[in-house]
Amino acid sequence: MSLELLGISVLWIFLFGYLIVASIDFGAGFFVTYSEWTGQKHVLGNIIQRYLSPVWEVTNVFLVFFFVGIVGFFPKTAYYYGSALLIPVSISIILLAIRGSYYAFSTYGSKDNKWYTFLYGVTGVLIPASLTTVLTISEGGYLTITDESVSLKLTELLTSPYSWSVVLLSIVSVLFISASFLTYYANKAEDTRAENLLRRYALGWSVPSVLIAVIVFYMLKSQNLEHFQQMVDLAWMFMISLGFFMIGVYLIYKRKAYGWAFTAVMMQYFFAFLGYGASHYPYLLYPVLTIYDGFTNETMAIALVVAFIFGLLLLIPALYLLLRLFLFNRDYVKGNE
Amino acid sequence: MTYDATTYSRILTELTLSFHILFATIGVGVPLMIALAQWIGIKRNDHHYILLARRWTRGFTITVAVGVVTGTAIGLQLSLLWPKFMETAGQVIALPLFMETFAFFFEAIFLGIYIYTWDRFKKPIYHFLLLIPVAIGSSASAFFITTVNAFMNTPQGFEIVNGVITNIDPIEAMFSPSVPTKVSHVLVSAYMTSAFVLAALAAYQMLKGKNHEYYKKALKITMIPALVFSIATAVVGDFSGKFLAEYQPEKLAAAEWHFETESHAPLILYGYLDENGEIKGALEIPYALSILAGNTPSTEVIGLNEFPEDERPPLYVHYFFDLMVTLGVLLTIIALLYAMWLRWKPRLAHHKWMLRAIVWSAPLSLLAIEIGWFFAEVGRQPWILRGYMKVPEASTTSPHVGTLIIVFAVLYVILAVGSAIVLRKMFKNNPPEKELQEYSMKHGGEIHVS
Q1: What transmembrane ranges does the database entry give (chain A) (predicted)?
Q2: Do A189 and A334 touch, CB atoms closer than 8 A?
Q3: What pLDDT digit, counting tens, does each position of A96-143 carry?
Q4: How far apart are CA A114 and CA A120, in angstroms?
Q5: What is the value of pTM for the model shown?
Q6: Run of H or E residues at B390
Q7: Whole-number pLDDT of residue A109
Q8: CA-to-CA separations, A214 to A169, A231, A264, A271, in angstroms, rounded
């Protein structure tokens, strides 16, 4: 495996990690707000708070890790994406800042403020929407590139059906992933009412998530034919993804093995995401930047890989401890501790 | 002001950094202070110190949250506002940036665990142990990120052949000459500032008439480290002067309005420049600059005139430098007075003027941090990467930076106001006396509540 491929694979896996943990977080925000409107906040509030409180910062670090890593391995991305994405990424930063700080304010400070809950719910939907514009832009056609500058064709981005279908996909996926996880968590906490509600949400968002994914796939054909073709060539990955989707939904429907159901949902997204990424190869940005010509020098790449391995040796036990104490600790989950 | 992407990018970066640095500084120093309080509490079996650690932790969660989100902002803004800098420097200095995220990751995980496990362990020392990775992680973050700033001042570890960067050595780049003085100055000044901020909280309550033991203990456990770290900051500051004289003479020369290269150079304090560029109204300390630069009056100090005009930092950095040093001296005196009185005249240590001075030490030390960073950053101008890349070559060409300045300014105001309100509420509605009473009722009066 070349260093370029190793670098992008590591980053892609971390991005997938962010996709899962952030989706759970973002979706949770939406569900809490929604359940407040429908007068069912008491059903969900506790369970979601117990899960999110110790982990929200960790979620944020996944994102930081990804963008620092991609600039490290592929410094040219800083030039292209950095120049072009000033507006959309700044919007994401602001939303993330509001969400993160107000989450802390409401959790550790004053409880039950309607305004916080509202912000928390709204940002949960808007952040994935704004972040996915990066993936949309990577398909090419949204940038004006000259020798001196790179700039974004904002109107084209905002009027593009492909762009909006990706936004829709991200939101629906967030809700589906989040609901499947929280169903499992509520079940562990033996909170039947929350479990039933969340199970309904999970089933409700399941089919739309796949339908919209198919729509995005067809939209891509007119946006980037080359990428579309490569995705067709990798169709088996998407079939596996679909298989896991059916397993996950079946288990949730049958109220069986929620843990496995959520694992299946994760695998569904893992294969879809991997298929998308692999068919995107070798381009970081169609059609101007590949992982080969955007790559850093070999010395730096090796240094980063070594740092990454040592970093993981520290992180994995630490993450295990975190999960052990909060996620897989029966007493904590149930609220006895 | 006509639109200029570079100037606007500088303003936005200054805005974000000057907001973030307050929270980052507290984020580096406070874990150490919490650890100190908890450790003493466990060792002496004194619940007051444990409660102190616990209350500081609660407040810390809020400042950490703001630190995390503004840190994410500056991390992304580096690429958004300075894409060409990141493209170039990223090839050489990406390693510590990458390692910083690991340190931060580590810190975030253990902080999450620490906050939620106060009463979960039978032996309190286990809970204390969880804090060690937090303190190490936060100081390590500061270390790594400061090495990147050091690299911008004294870049090394690469060669440029025909405009292409080659022969890259990431380790050499990471440990550039300014690392020792810069990193130690950042760390000890962060510990110092955090100690003063926490001391000010106790002093403020005492000024309002609270006289519980708890506050006196809080004052002592913060002011003694504040003294140690303010002296350490001054010592490291002196080393920084020597470092600058050798590696970044133009920065020292601009800070000191030192134009001609000479030995026996005097130190210029304050003053102003008249229309002919003559120094007026300044306090001159003979030989002091030479001594700062090289320990002896005969040390030759390079003057600003040795540098081409377009490579000189702006002369107003002189005021940043003087103000930073003045504040540092003032803070050391406050801490020293407290310590001396506590030792020889304990009654005066809690005199209202002493307490007032301690309350003031919090804003003054935060101001010193700000001014110090302004000196460090403006003193590097016109370079973003000293000797290789000037600021205008590095910035974005986007026409939208102006709008974003306004938007981010609003965001930071919201965050500042929000965190102030939440922190106030958090402590006002739940004073330590109340918590101590609850504790002693639960534990059958083991602790005297007077």
Answers
A1: 12-34, 55-74, 80-98, 118-142, 162-186, 198-219, 234-253, 260-279, 299-323
A2: yes
A3: 898 888 888 877 766 666 777 788 888 888 999 888 888 888 888 888
A4: 10
A5: 0.90
A6: strand B389-390
A7: 66
A8: 10, 12, 19, 15
Closest approach of chain A CAs to the CA of B84, in angstroms?
6
Using CB atoms, which residue from B100, B111, B171 is nearest to A57? B111
Q: Is the pLDDT of residue B266 over 60?
A: yes
Q: How far is A3 from chain B (nearest CA, A)?
A: 15
CB contact under 8 A, B76 and A299: no
Listed in sequence order, the residues at least 6 apart from B393 whose beta carbon sits closer than 8 Å to its beta carbon are B84, B384
Q: Which residues of B touch A90 (CB under 8 A)?
A: 80, 404, 407-408
Mutate to test the interface with B, among A80, A108, A325 (most CBs of B within 10 A): A108
| B422 in A contact zone (CB under 8 Å) | yes
Quote the pLDDT of residue A337.
Answer: 54
Chain B, 173-232: which have a CB under 8 Å from a chain A CB? none
Instruction: Please state the separation of Cα A45 from the chain's center in Å.
Output: 22
Cβ distance B102 to A85 less than 8 Å, yes or no, reads no
- Take residue B405 and report the two structure tokens written for it: 């300045």
User: Stretch B216-227: mean pLDDT, rounded?
Assistant: 93
**Interface list for B 334-353 with A (CB within 8 A):** none
What Cα–Cα distance (Å) separates residue B58 from each residue in A105, B415, B448? 11, 17, 24
Q: Are B67 and B145 in contact (CB under 8 A)?
A: no
Write down the mean pLDDT value for chain B.
Answer: 89
Question: Cα A312 to chain center, whole Å?
Answer: 21
Put simply, the answer to whether A55 touches B112 (Cβ < 8 Å) is yes
pLDDT along chain A (337 residues), means of 10: 86 90 88 79 74 76 87 88 88 89 76 74 88 87 84 86 91 93 87 87 91 89 85 90 93 91 93 90 85 85 89 86 77 67
Could you tell me how many CB contacts below 8 A there are between chain A and chain B? Answer: 214
Q: Does A65 touch chain B (CB under 8 A)?
A: yes
Cβ-based contacts of B400 with chain A (< 8 Å): 86-87
The set of residues, in sequence order, having a beta carbon less than 8 Å from that of B20 and lying 6+ positions away, is: B67, B70, B71, B73, B74
- Asked whether the beta carbons of A271 and A227 are under 8 A apart, the reply is no
Pairing relation of β-strands A150-152 and A143-145? antiparallel
Q: Which chain A residues touch B108 with a CB distance below 8 Å?
A: 57-58, 60-61
What pLDDT, on a 0 to 100 scale, did the predictor assign at position B450?
37
ipTM of model: 0.86
Task: State residue B449's pLDDT score.
Answer: 41
Tokens 């306090």 found at:
B283
Which residue from B minimizes the CA distance to A11? B98
Rounded distance, CA B34 to CA B44, Å? 15
Residue of chain B whose Cα is closest to the Cα of A147: B397
What per-residue confidence (pLDDT) applies to A111? 61
Task: Find chain B residues with C-beta within 8 A of A78's C-beta.
Answer: 79, 83, 86-87, 90
Determine the Cα–Cα distance for residues B131 and B120; give it in Å rounded to an integer: 14
Q: What is the mean pLDDT of residues B129-153?
A: 93
Question: Mean pLDDT of all residues in chain A?
Answer: 86
Q: What average pLDDT does range B46-58 have in this prediction?
A: 91
Q: Give residue A7's identity as a one-letter amino acid code.
A: G
Provide the 3-class DSSP secondary structure of residue A146: coil
What pLDDT does residue B432 have? 83
In chain B the domains, ranked by start, together with CATH numbers, are 5-261+302-443 (1.20.1630.10)
The residue ranges of every structural domain in chain A are 3-333
- Report, as an integer, the average pLDDT of B157-182: 88
Per-residue confidence (pLDDT) for residue B295, from 0 to 100: 86
**The pLDDT value given to residue B82:** 92
Q: B289 — contact with chain A (CB < 8 Å)?
A: no
Among B87, B129, B130, B413, the strongest candidate for a mutation testing the A interface, having the largest count of A CBs within 10 A, is B87
Q: Which phi and psi angles does B268 have, rounded to 5°?
A: -95, 125
Q: Which amino acid is at A4?
A: E
